Input
Amino acid sequence: MRKFAIIGLGKLGTTVAKFLAERGAEVIAVDKNADLVDELKEIVDLAVKLDATDEEALRSQGIDKVDVAIVSMGENFEAAVMATALLKGKLGVPLVITRASPTESGIREKILKLVGADRIVLPEVEMGQKLAQSLLLTHIVDYVPISEKYSAAEIEAPRSFWGKNIGDLNIRRRYKVSILEIKRSYLGKNGKKTEKINYLPQADDLVEEGDLLLVLGELEDIERLSEG
Amino acid sequence: MRKFAIIGLGKLGTTVAKFLAERGAEVIAVDKNADLVDELKEIVDLAVKLDATDEEALRSQGIDKVDVAIVSMGENFEAAVMATALLKGKLGVPLVITRASPTESGIREKILKLVGADRIVLPEVEMGQKLAQSLLLTHIVDYVPISEKYSAAEIEAPRSFWGKNIGDLNIRRRYKVSILEIKRSYLGKNGKKTEKINYLPQADDLVEEGDLLLVLGELEDIERLSEG
Ligand SMILES: Nc1ncnc2c1ncn2[C@@H]1O[C@H](COP(=O)(O)OP(=O)(O)OP(=O)(O)O)[C@@H](O)[C@H]1O
Ligand SMILES: Nc1ncnc2c1ncn2[C@@H]1O[C@H](COP(=O)(O)OP(=O)(O)OP(=O)(O)O)[C@@H](O)[C@H]1O
Output
């Protein structure tokens, strides 16, 4: 498994460090704030207080031997630039992923790329755009962009589908969309709501009122299908 | 189209307000910081400086008439709780989505749900988990979770596929994975790298060295396929 270094233990850095360590990956976590370092001491292989803009400090902790480094210091742009440049330029880390804060012109992303960042992440922007896009699609419960062309989405089964079987509806030919799952809620004996999921439904499976359909296709086709 | 109110114009709030307004939605943007409000005056229908914990101020700007409100004040938890409670409890906004900051026990999310938030978003956590998961999958270039069971992923075409056509590889039967796209890079006449995408490839389409495959299936099956 690859070895990881997480530089900056804010909300993003801490989430990534914990997720990787819990699945057995070797993780070195670094921050200048001792309290944040202490929180992770029990969870990761090595958690150490140091200044990430100090090349010798990074090298002394074996950061030059990791496969991937994640730099997450959104509010401290100068430190993010310096750490990225050192990790890529001086320590030779093969993959450096740096978190940036959005600016009108994107100048921060350009500078980070210039000093060697292999990938830039902008959590609030990526999340904000996905949230806003899903809110614009009125009949769609949740939406996941997959590529330029394809999306997955959870939609309420349109009224015209209720009581009909998948074969008769001929969805792939009429709408150019595939159904991956049908999710149906039941009221159990104890009055608790339970959910049953029918994966890759067959031609004779029925669609009922209240069903949620997980579908795959182009967004326009999914919108058309969701309006039934 | 639905009417939206965006409360708090940090990175997330600003991204959502701009995305919705650029696509024609009616947006009211609110913040106590005049500079942030001024930035959006040209872009949204109404941008106004006010304290979001003041019920009369919210009502005076017609926030009780919107369909969706997004509360994005991650660092100011008390204001987020108060604004959420007012929007849902007093102003009757049908859908309130509130941004939270992660805590060890998840107590902030629980309180926000208690005072009426319909949905909670945690950008750094959701982004951090997705980033960490994609880093653990070594042969996978990018990964998109779709549901509990299904994921989409971009993988490098395994060596055993080079020079073979899709029909002969029998991928759906052997690996239980579908191929949505084959992405191939060319070096154009001017020496620039261009990309060509083959959507929903047919049985006689060839896979070549260097191709990227966009696939859909269960993560374990995708990992097995990517190791060829
Ligand atoms: N020079 C430095 N060396 C090491 N750690 C640093 C340095 N400068 C800042 N940090 C640490 O980086 C962490 C993240 O800082 P910041 O708040 O800028 O990030 P963020 O990416 O916005 O966080 P979040 O993921 O919480 O949104 C802080 O814990 C801070 O102590
Ligand atoms: N009572 C309030 N009324 C209106 N606006 C407020 C109030 N309290 C805070 N804000 C505004 O909310 C905005 C977001 O604040 P904060 O930095 O807490 O959010 P955030 O969600 O972490 O931001 P980001 O999306 O940038 O990560 C700020 O611009 C701040 O001025």
Notes: The first helix of chain A runs from residue 11 to 22. Residues A 124; B 8-13, 31-33, 36, 51-53, 72-76, 79, 99 surround adenosine-5'-triphosphate (ligand 2) (CB under 6 Å).
